[in-house]
Structure prediction request, 125 residues.
Amino acid sequence: MSADFTEDAAAAPKKKKKDLGSFFKVTTDKAAGPPLQQDQAITFELQSYLQTETLDAEEDPLKWWKESQRIYPRLSNLARKYLCIPATSSSSERVFSTGGNIVSCLRSSLKPDYVNGLVFLAKNL
Prediction:
């Protein structure tokens, strides 16, 4: 039974990652019409979005995009994908810096478990 499972897993096609351009890629569908109409729809959606009122700083942008998904379907896909990414890496840089301060020339033979514990204590006390 395990041999069948590995054959099925190997035969399954791998999922292709989507990039930024794939959200605006034109699909050829006979009912959709020529690609020019798709380009016009994208342009109209972007211009309409740029003319909307600016969101208040106190409001949740993810909630706004969820509510506006019907009006801006392509842009809401982009927002859902890219608004979840943290803007900075400063928290991870602080942890690496703390680790560098703990592991010095005199303390270079510390075991990794002890270093992890010391970094945890330094950041949480």
About this structure: The helical segments are 2-11, 35-50, 61-67, 73-82, 90-102, 112-124. Residues 35-50 form the longest helix (16 residues). The CA atoms of residues 100 and 106 lie 12 Å apart. The chain has a mean pLDDT of 77.
